[in-house]
């Protein structure tokens, strides 16, 4: 089943850690297949501790297990039998440090120049847009990439936090300040940014990925990546009757309400 939304599904933001990893891997595979000779796509990671243990955002499971229906599984029966056979031990509870958080991103490297990075591609996460180590490291990467003479691509499909892409938001006309934004900074075009404004009701675009200045751009179908993440993540169980987290802005919320009712995943209004 596909998402009922024509573009980015705002309900996926609540599962962004998993969605983010899928988008990075899918984009890397997509681009690797179209690289010209001498260029390679590499998936890299940065690691940081997002916050202390008192902040629930710092606690993430490695694997989610979701129950979709009532009833006891065979594992429940086995567990009950085990408890009869032996008393269950009581653990000692202690505080521990927050687990480090990893975020993936893409680098395109030039083999002939000693693996010089020519392009960096980031799928922006909410933690890159709120105060803390995640944002600090992201802005440092943004600055260092541009200063090193590499191209920088930022794909921001989240609504949490303040948008801090590699251009001044004040330079963007109000009509272009949309729900989602993609920014491309070419290494050889200093002082200029290519901005893709994307509204909630729009299909996500096919964007141009700069390589070496002498190369033709690669193209990346962002919508195809999100569709694949939705399908492979089996998000067809999302509850579209409730509002997404974080809530949509009022104009987007009104549009989404009508759209979801039209698609039959939210009850129609009584007449």
Topology summary:
Blueprint: H1 16-32, E1 39-48, H2 74-85, E2 101-110, E3 116-123, H3 133-147, E4 151-156, E5 180-185, E6 194-198, E7 206-209, E8 218-221, H4 222-232, H5 250-262
Parallel strand pairs: 3-4
Antiparallel strand pairs: 1-2, 2-3, 4-5, 5-6, 7-8
Characterise the protein shown here.
By secondary structure, the protein is an alpha+beta fold. The protein has one domain. The chain has 5 helices and 8 strands; from the N terminus they run αβαββαβββββαα. It has a 6-stranded mixed beta sheet with strand order 1-2-3-4-5-6, with helices on both faces. A two-stranded antiparallel sheet has the order 7-8. Helix 1 packs across helix 4. It is globular, with a radius of gyration of 22 Å.
Beta-strand residue fraction:
15-25%
Report Rg: 22 Å
SS element count, helices: 5
Mean pLDDT over all positions: 86
Distance between the termini: 29 Å
Give the helices and strands as they follow along the chain.
HEHEEHEEEEEHH
Uncertain ranges: 52-68
Spatial order of strands in the largest sheet: 1-2-3-4-5-6
Per DSSP E runs of 2 or more residues, the count of β-strands stands at 8
**Helical content (DSSP H or I, runs of 4+):** 25-40%
Mind describing the biggest β-sheet? 6 strands, mixed
Structural class: alpha+beta
Number of individual domains: 1
| Form type | globular
Short synopsis of the structure:
The protein has 271 residues and is α+β, with helices and mostly antiparallel strands.
């Amino acid at each position: 089943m596909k998402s009922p939304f024509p573009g980015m599904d705002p309900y996926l933001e609540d599962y962004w850690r998993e969605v983010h990893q899928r988008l990075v891997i899918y984009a890397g595979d997509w681009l690797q297949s179209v690289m010209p000779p001498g260029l390679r796509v590499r998936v890299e990671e940065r690691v940081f501790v997002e916050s202390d243990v008192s902040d629930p955002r710092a606690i993430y499971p490695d694997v989610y297990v979701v129950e979709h229906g009532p009833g006891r599984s065979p594992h429940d029966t086995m567990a009950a039998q085990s408890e009869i056979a032996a008393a269950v031990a009581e653990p000692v509870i202690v505080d521990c440090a927050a687990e480090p958080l990893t975020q993936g991103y893409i680098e395109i490297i030039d083999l002939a120049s000693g693996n010089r990075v020519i392009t960096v591609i980031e799928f922006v996460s909410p933690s890159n847009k709120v105060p803390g180590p995640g944002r600090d490291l992201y802005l440092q990467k943004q600055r260092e990439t541009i200063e090193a003479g590499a191209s920088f691509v930022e794909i921001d499909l989240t609504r949490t936090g303040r948008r801090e892409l590699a251009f001044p938001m004040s330079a963007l006309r109000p009509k272009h300040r949309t729900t989602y934004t993609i920014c491309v900074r070419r290494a050889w075009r200093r002082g200029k940014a290519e901005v893709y404004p994307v509204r909630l009701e729009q299909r996500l675009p096919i964007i141009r990925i700069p390589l070496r200045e002498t190369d033709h751009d690669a193209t990346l179908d962002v919508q195809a990546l999100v569709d694949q993440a939705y399908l492979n993540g089996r998000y067809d169980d999302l509850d579209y009757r409730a509002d997404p987290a974080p809530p949509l802005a009022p104009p987007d919320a009104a549009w989404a309400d009508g759209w979801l009712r039209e698609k039959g995943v939210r009850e129609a209004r009584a007449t």
